[in-house]
Amino acid sequence: MSKSLIQAVENASSSEALVKAVWALSNSQSEEAIPTLIKVLGFNNPGAAVAAVEGLVKLGDVAVPTLIAQLDGYDYGARAWAIRALSRIANPEALEILLDAAANDFSLSVRRAAAKGLGELRWEKLSPEAREEAQQKALETLMTVAKDEEWIVRYAAIVGLEALAKTVFATEIQAYLQQRKQAEPDLTARSRIRLAVGANGDSN
Fold first, then answer.
1. What's the gap between Cα 95 and its chain centre?
2. Is 200 or 165 the better-scoring residue by pLDDT?
3. Contacts of 51 (CB under 8 A, 6+ apart)
4. Out of 1.10.3720.10, 1.25.10.10, 3.40.50.2300, 3.40.50.300, which CATH number does the structure's domain 1-89 have?
5. Rounded to two decimals, what is the model's pTM?
6. Residue % of the chain over a pLDDT of 70
7. Domain boundaries in the chain?
């Protein structure tokens, strides 16, 4: 069955047919679909990419090694979709990829997706020793990315910090966000900081 679904993706003759075929493949939840779903991320078809991401997220941890191995260093669109998938799967095996993408990728869509994902990793999958080091790296990177030149990336870093604070570093993150609230020039990002620190009624 998986082979016929994969062939349907490969032989799709229109954008609409491709989207339909990718959804069918995604819903199969077959490990055989992983390479094809990753390939779809680079097709420049947002509808198909959304379907592929959903399929990869449904497959979960089993898709992570291939996603990491096949991360596209040239096509930033495909890379952004892959980072979205890794962020939603939230396996800490992707930590180093997300750290680098959030801090260094030239594409704001990649930085944005990675920053959000850094705060939501399933830290319990790591040993206590590895977890402490990994969470520290995530904290430091998110604090840096919260000063990104693009407000939408800063916004994502705030979301990431808020999520991380639910697990660890709550006091440090609260203090940092209070500081950022004063320095943040964008109204939308500043409002998100207020929400994160529970100060919606603050007039600053």
1. 11
2. 165
3. 19, 22, 23, 25, 26, 40
4. 1.25.10.10
5. 0.92
6. 97
7. 1-89
